[in-house]
Amino acid sequence: MTEIEQAGSGGSESSGVREGHGGDLAVAVARAHGVSAMFTLSGAHVFPLYDAAVGGSERPSPPPLRLVDVRHEQTAVFAAEAVGKLTRTPGLAVVTAGPGVTNAVSAVTQAHQAGAPLVLLGGRAPTQRWGAGSLQELDHPPLLAPVTKLAATVPTVDEIVPAVDQAFRLAGTRHRGPVFLDVPMDQLYSRTSASVPEVAEPDLGEPDAEAVGEIANLLASAQRPLLVLGSDVYLDRADCAARTLVEELELPVVVNGMGRGIFPPGHPQLVSRARSTAVGRCDLAIVVGTPLDFRLAYGSFGGRDGAPPAKVVHVADAADQLARHVPLAAAAAGPLRVTLATLATAWEQVLRRPGWTSWTAELRASDQAARARDAALLTADADPIHPARVYGELRRQLAEDAVLIGDGGDFVSFAGKYVEPARPGCWLDPGPFGCLGAGLGAAIAARVSRPSSQVVLLLGDGAAGMSLLDVDTLVRHRLPVVMVVGNNGCWGLEKHPMRMLYGYDVATDLAPATRYDEVARALGGAGETVTRPDDIGPALRRAFDSGVPYLLNVLTDPEIVYPRATFGV
């Protein structure tokens, strides 16, 4: 049995002594860390946590935590992960022992890969019966250890407060990620008293001034620089510092993940539609807050059209996130907000600054040409419907603060190409782990976290099959979400590559024209199937106006292949 290390209060002052069962104490700590919602699927091992969340039999209004129960444990964890991304503070999920924990592993892994802060509390068979074969007895921490910052058992009720406090502090500390704790059932039901520590703002720390100076010197000698911003720029609250840096230095920039929205559509330095040219012809790439993985050609920049390989700089929020698989011209690890501000200050000390006007103009021209070419697809009258037409119609109806969620392969790839969020923190996708089925959990979290915003979930029909039963959760908890299914009757991300490799495909077809809208209606929501391009816009208006979970089942052309440059291998 793995036991958690003794965790202190981090020097914070006591906020008062609490008496209660283990659930009362855990929820009190979560509330101190800013948690407002608990996502779960019911299980007797964790009843005390529910009792505390709703405020006991008195059921005060509002309750201590909003309790959102779902239809699959992975949905609960996907929701907590999305809360962590949207609010930049750890989300909370609670699952029962045994299969409750094992069902959560894929979602925890996605949070681990994405650097999303969350705390997962699991039930555990009682200590007094351990080894005797209790219901759902399993030693969970060894399963979760590889994909968490900490996976441990809280052995006694007296250790719940310091352990849960440590879990939230650790999950929200750079580099962010999930933390898992399980509590034996007999200990969670037991009672004790404890002081709940106050939570102070963490110290940002100091940037690596010498490393930042090296980056400024590299910029001073660059003729074609490129800045790449990823999710950690948003998660580390460095989005304003990034925008200031770009505008002061007039750097061309591309974004991925939750870096999307830091610059609004049409910003003069944002050249996302010239990404291929920018990546292929730059002579210096400064990558901030995202790994040098398959999405960035594993850190290979330059080398196109006779250009030499580019120098690569990696800036991460923590040293263990810096790339080790490619040579770096410079690297810096530390708080991204401070690091980017320090780089802007260091640039002011550079005496001889190159001009990047022609390079930026080249990229901007390429970006604008690509957008002009987009127009034909975004307004295409093709029958069957071209996926891009869906996004051409959707873009016209999105509010500035709309939250967009992608869950799928080819259909969502088109969204990433054609739909640009207007604000930071308004785009969610599975990230580098690529775990389908995350969308309904993320939609639940988005509606809870952003009650006044449009929430749009974009689903491939393959991904829809993995989580669509949680429309029931949206209905029961009165969470209106617009869901758009791009229904091409196949696993498009696999079908076309398999044809390319083998000349045929197997295990890639789904039933054509499946009525996913009828699934939504059967679960208490609303929806309709769309087969004609001109009907997409009016259907979207009905969906947004409905005030209920509404699913648009759009039948799209299965022969349309997203023109991707990599399959992630």
Automatic annotation (TrEMBL):
Q: Which Gene3D superfamilies match?
A: 3.40.50.970, TPP-binding domain
Listed A to Z, the keywords are: Metal-binding, Thiamine pyrophosphate, Transferase
Mark the transmembrane ranges: none
Q: What is this protein called?
A: Acetolactate synthase-1/2/3 large subunit
Domain Thiamine pyrophosphate enzyme central span(s) in chain numbering: 214-343
Tell me where on the tree of life, at the top rank, the source sits: Bacteria
Transferase among keywords: yes
**Protein EC:** 2.2.1.6
Q: Which GO terms describe its molecular function?
A: acetolactate synthase activity; flavin adenine dinucleotide binding; magnesium ion binding; thiamine pyrophosphate binding
Which Pfam families would you find in this protein's record? TPP_enzyme_C (PF02775), TPP_enzyme_M (PF00205), TPP_enzyme_N (PF02776)
Q: Region (Disordered): which ranges?
A: 1-20
| Entry cofactors | Mg(2+); thiamine diphosphate
Which stretches make up the Thiamine pyrophosphate enzyme TPP-binding domain?
407-554
Please name the GO terms of the biological process aspect recorded for this protein, alphabetically: isoleucine biosynthetic process; L-valine biosynthetic process
| Sequence similarity | Belongs to the TPP enzyme family.
Q: In this protein, which residues make up the domain named Thiamine pyrophosphate enzyme N-terminal TPP-binding? A: 22-140
Which is one Gene Ontology cellular component term of this protein? acetolactate synthase complex
